[in-house]
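User: I'm preparing a small set of examples for a lab meeting where we compare how different chains pack in three dimensions. I only have the primary sequence for this one, and I'd like the structure in token form so I can line it up with the others. Please keep the answer compact; I'll paste it straight into my notes.
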Amino acid sequence: MSFSIRHAVEDDSTSLAVVELLTAPEFANFLLEGMFGDASVGAILSWRYRQGGVDSTDWAWVAEENGEIVGAMGAYPVALSRAEQGTDTGEANERNLHFAPLIELMRDDAFHIARIGVLLQARRRGIARALIEMAEAATLAEGLSLLTLIVWADNDGALAFYDALGFTERGSAEIAAHPRLERHGKMLLLGKDLA
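Assistant: Understood. Below is the structure token output for the 195-residue chain.
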């Protein structure tokens, strides 16, 4: 194994934003584009990662290889994210409400992987698996026994990967079309019981 996994620190904020935008940009673009004048989504993400809370380096891990961040994951206790919900108002709240069907699926007694990504050049080397193993350890460290994540129902590769790791479907939600959203359709909540 030529990579290592570690907890993210504030100096990783820009790299976390880069990984998110290169591996799964649709949610960040939908939620953040145009929210702060001419600021880019990457700049907003990088700033957000430094602010504390569930969408920050407080609850993020990175995969490093040869001194470079090649993968990242954000995961946290769902109950903690519920405590932060409702702090956004106006346009930010309206954008978040579009994903209410997904939020309703999430269980308060779970630890949730909100985002995970590995850069293309570093894939197929066990990095995603190692990040998920870190999430499993964090789940147990938080006194929880359920790890969850959400995936598009038509993402056969991801579904096969998560199935091989022991995740099973726990629910589904339909994400409605929206002019600002790159894709829409059925998403699945997957879960893994850890005991």
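A couple of notes for your slides: The longest strand covers residues 68-77. Residues 3-193 form a domain with the Aminopeptidase fold (CATH 3.40.630.30).

User: Perfect, thanks.
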